[in-house]
Amino acid sequence: MSDFGVDATWPLFLMLLAWLPLFGKSYQVFPHPSISSLPADTLSIYLHKTWRGLGAIAIISTAFAMAGPYWGELNIERLGRGAHVMIVLDRSASMNDDFTDRPTSHDGASKPDASKMAAARRVLDAFIKQSREDLIGMVSFSTSPILVAPLSGDREAVQAALNATEAGGMGFTAVARGLGMGLDYFEGKPMTGSRVILLVSDGAAHLDVKTRELLRNMFQRQQASLYWIYLRSKNGASLSDRPPEGEEQAYPEYELHAYFQTLGMPYQAYEAENPQAVQSAMKTIARLKNKPVYYKQAAPRHDLSNIFYGIALISVLGLLVLALMEVKKWRYGSE
Amino acid sequence: MSHFIPQEFHYRLNWRTHGVRPGAHASKTLGGNADFRGFSHFLSHPDPKRIDVRRSLMVVPKTLMVRTFYERNAITVYAMIDASSSMAFAGDADKWKMVAEIASAIAWSSARQGDAFGLLTADDALRPDLSESASSRRGVAQQIYQTIHSATLKSQTSASALPQLAAQLSNKKSLVFLISDFHIEIETLKTTLQAMAIHDVVPVVLWDDAEYENIPEWGWARVRDLETGADASLFLRPQLLQKMTDSYLLKRNTLIQLCRKLGIRKPFFVGKYFNATQLSQHLLGLS
Questions:
Q1: Which residue from A86, A185, B24, B26 has the highest number of Cβ atoms inside 10 Å of its Cβ?
Q2: Per the structure, how many domains does chain A have?
Q3: What is the ipTM of this complex?
Q4: pLDDT in tens, A127-140
């Protein structure tokens, strides 16, 4: 979980200097004709040993502190309620269109923000705000996928990313690449809760067999479930309506829906024909995913050098006390 | 320095010397007129000056009797110096300077009493440079004062050659002042003293007060042995100072006991300064 390390190794060699206080003899001594005539005093002997030890500790801890020791990046395990949600948002040009069931104001004019994109943004914004404990990431895609926010508990980043989608969408709908990128963000992360891919899109594209197989493998490997909020266009086909025989190719939505059902992972499609429907779909998802999740949060590594500087300081203070205790003149009352 | 006059002390022997040179000490040599020995027949000592009429009338059969006397003779006085490194200690007084002072006082006093003087010095080996063969040469006191004063002691030497030094002494009973701090291994000391058994030995012990007594009451000090170079840590406090004093007292008593056991004079302890009067009193048995 945590490992110990140092920034630089060269100061460790300075530890060898601890040899000096341990075995050195260059301290102030008074000559005496015969120490064997003096009584052996245990306290004095320990005092001398303490002095040597403190000197060594001071040098070793200073050298060690200079090396910059730290506890490795600590990951704190946190318990969260909610899911790892990767929002895969369609930003194709068609998202700027209106819903089938167009909400109208009293004067009959359409609301300026009634586009599918605006509705999706509004609802997703509420979802993000509400799901306090979810880990949320976001990928938007049109012709090619763009990473907007990686999977994290940082809600503000996702929200900012969502706000950034106010610029109009463009290009085509590359569902497979968007999903692939979304799934990529689960890769290498600990599986501490249910994983959800929330696909918000208004249409689909035809997936070839190879892509299908690849996506299926990815879903299964990441153990991610899929929720598709299908924002149905004015003239778009419903997912539940079986297209006429032999015309399946003309209805990629239905084809994709059918393919998703074969993923082998939990899959749910919500067909939303108006903003209210989107909202209710999101509520369902929010409710479904409220299972506890364990996740780890990276804490900054702990710099231990201060502790060792502290130890060195204490040792030096001890040495200072001993030095102040030292007799400066041997003879009592001499000049 | 030729005008320097060392301190003078007096000494008296409690034994008769075998000397031939006239001097101040009682001897076993017949002659002279100092110490009465007894009566003798005139024919064995034909000296009309010494005829004792009263004794001649008392003896039966009557014959001429003469008084006989012992001569007063000179002895040789030695100063034997321990030149081990510990003698370089300077506390209240510089020990080595004190050695010079005492040795010259011995030389001076012995000359004043008409005795010959010899100087012998040793550390781990004999020190011929600090030795002087026994003689009655004039000015030797001043000379050895200079020599000893200017001599340097070798570092980290003990006094292991002291027993060899004893062999350098005269084979006649002499008065030997053994000047040392007596921080010698007890075995070396015993061997030395036993080797000098035929002599009259006066141990002169130089113990400075600063070795054990005249030191700060509180504080932490580290001391290094001058002879071995070993260190000792001393957390000075009244309790430890008491212990140190006790330790020296014990050593002092041990030394006195040893001298008594070996039939040697009581040691003369020199502290802060050397006082010749005190030495005189000590030698006359007054102290």
A1: A86
A2: 2
A3: 0.82
A4: 777 766 677 888 88
Rounded to the nearest angstrom, the minimum Cα separation between B79 and chain A is: 21
- Domain presence at residue B12: no
Helix (H) or strand (E) holding B25: strand B22-41
Same domain, B172 and B32: no
Instruction: Note whether A92 and A218 are same-domain residues.
Output: yes
Q: Tell me how close the Cα of A73 comes to any Cα of chain B, in angstroms.
A: 47
Q: Are residues A309 and A215 in the same domain?
A: no
Give me the domain span that covers residue A317. Answer: 4-29+39-72+300-325
pLDDT digits (tens, 9 = 90+) for B131-140: 999 999 888 9
Interface with A, mutate which of B156, B235, B240, B270 (most A CBs under 10 A): B235
Inter-chain touch A35–B232, beta carbons under 8 Å: yes
Q: What is the pLDDT of residue A131?
A: 67
Mutant choice from A23, A42, A49, A327 vs B, greatest count of B C-beta within 10 A: A327
Across the interface, whether the CB atoms of A47 and B233 are under 8 A apart is answered yes
B208 plus B232 within the same structural domain: yes
Q: Is residue B1 part of a domain?
A: no
Out of B215, B217, B240, the one facing A330 most closely (by C-beta) is B215
